[in-house]
Amino acid sequence: MARIIVVTSGKGGVGKTTSSAAIGLGLALKGHKVVLIDFDIGLRNLDLIMGCERRVVYDFVNVINGEATLNQALIKDKRVSSLSILPASQTRDKDALNKENVGKVLEELGKSYDFIVCDSPAGIEAGAMMALYYADEAIVTTNPEVSSVRDSDRILGMLASRSRRAELGLEPIKEHLLLTRYSPKRVEEGEMLSVEDVEDILSIPLLGVIPESQAVLKASNAGEPVILDTESDAGKAYQDVIDRLLGETVDFRFLVAEKKGIFSRMFGG
Amino acid sequence: MADASIEFKGTSFTLSVLHLKTSTLADIRADLVKKVAQAPDFFYLVPVVVSIEQLDCSVDYQAVKTLIEEFNFTFVGFTGSVDKEQRKLIRELGFSFVNTTRVDTSKKAAIAEEALATETKVTPAIPECNLYTDKVHRGQIRSGQQLYAKDQNLVVIGSVSAGAEVIADGNIHVYGSLRGRAIAGAKGHHKAQIYCQNLEAELVSINGNYWLSESMEQHWGSPVYIHLTDSELTSSKLI
């Protein structure tokens, strides 16, 4: 049985797509068969982050409507052969999906993949509900600021009440907290919520802390998920996330600001 | 006959009850002397029911009546939940046996004592909190969620997030942080209270009286309970 993981947040712009791409690719690099699905119908982005935007012929909505087969729509990643991407439609809206057909597609994918990573749209409307409905696990992407935390809290409520698992009374969705755009320096200066603050409010287990990094924007624009940038802090932090998802215990890194050395302090770094 | 010369009707009266704790008449007499000496006018011709509930052996009923009347009480009868044989005996002696509705003996003694001293009414009343049972919620209440305990107390084992709302017709207990809204005594119950382990609420309300966060500065971030005193919200530290 494939693990269906939804990457969600409630709030937009917190790093859902960046995280989906990094996690999808990271799992595939470990040798697992992974499919990444873009649920953001009408605002297709995942293909850009993955660098496969020029290879989109058919999309998720075509498959749902029976206009194309899954194999026609799935794009094989050029870097890792065990990774496929199911892009969203840019010309349709979120009502194009329906529970029944999405369920059929996921079931079909589940036969040949180990992980199905669903990149959820922002908001709490139909599109986001569709993305989380069939999930086994949820990665709740949150920035360390109050509005993002509150929206994540709202989504956690939805996960517990509106998902298939909730409706059927099955074991609840396994929730993970992924804190992105974390800046230890700004936390120390009291400008940003700390990991502890966010954990206290949301009270779900912490999966990872991704530091604010220039590498993320660079990676997005280049269509190379940041996990491939093994030199960057963000890339290393996503690597840790993959290890934790696969059941390993890894210490958290990048939680404290780097102390400036005496030379950089003297010469203004 | 259109108008009868008499009419029988049931009415409740507040009567003083004298609880006997011993069957030794001398002891009873000694204590009565002390008690009556405190307020002789108050006790003059006061109707008294004698409770034999706390006695574990039988007593000379006739002697008790005589003793009571000696102190200028008006003897009404005996009371107390005793066995049928005792009751029968009391009736046969020509005394009335008065039934009460209350059963809690320790409370009864305390209330009676108080009644004698201060003339407080001892009408048995069901405590208001008995109207409510508990609705228990395990787990956090997330932003946007609403939980209503109709005609019940609400117990939340977990935190109430900012943007969440908990409502109860009775009391609200939060075993966690209260960051959202809590509305207790929603149907108009001024004795309702709100308890939480960490007060960081957006709003608390009891029976329509409410506080926004700015009014909670005194106990912000503390374990507190909030209640009404003279239609004013008051917060007190729990520990």
Description:
The complex is a heterodimer of chains A (269) and B (239). Chain A has 269 residues and is of the alpha/beta class. Chain A has a single domain, classed as 3-Layer(aba) Sandwich (Rossmann fold). Helix content of chain A is 40%, strand content 16%. In chain A, a hairpin with a 6-residue loop joins strand 3 and strand 4 (83-86). In chain A, helix 1 (16-29) crosses helix 12 (233-245). By secondary structure, chain B is an alpha/beta fold. Chain B has 2 domains: 16-114, ACT domain (Alpha-Beta Plaits), CATH 3.30.70; 129-237, Pectate Lyase C-like. Helices cover 21% and strands 31% of the residues of chain B. Chain B has helices spanning 25-38, 40-43, 61-70, 84-92, 105-118, and strands at 16-19, 47-51, 74-79, 97-98, 133-138, 146-149, 152-157, 165-168, 172-178, 181-184, 194-199, 203-206, 209-212, 224-229, 232-237. In chain B, the strands form 3 sheets. Chain B has a 6-stranded mixed sheet, with no helix packed on it. A 5-stranded mixed sheet of chain B has the order 6-8-10-12-13, with no helix packed on it. In chain B, strands 1-2-3-4 form a 4-stranded parallel sheet. In chain B, strand 14 and strand 15 (232-237) form a beta hairpin. The radius of gyration of chain B is 26 Å and the shape is elongated. The N and C termini of chain B lie far apart (71 Å). Mean pLDDT of chain B is 83; it is low at 115-127. The interface between A and B is medium-sized, with 12 and 15 residues.
Quick description:
Chain A is an alpha/beta fold and 269 residues long. Chain A has helices at 16-29, 46-50, 60-64, 70-73, 99-110, 126-133, 146-161, 164-167, 184-188, 195-202, 214-222, 233-245, 262-266, and strands at 3-8, 34-38, 75-76, 83-86, 115-119, 137-142, 174-182, 206-211.
Distinctive features:
heterodimer; A: 269 residues; alpha/beta; B: 239 residues; Alpha-Beta Plaits; Pectate Lyase C-like; 2 domains; elongated
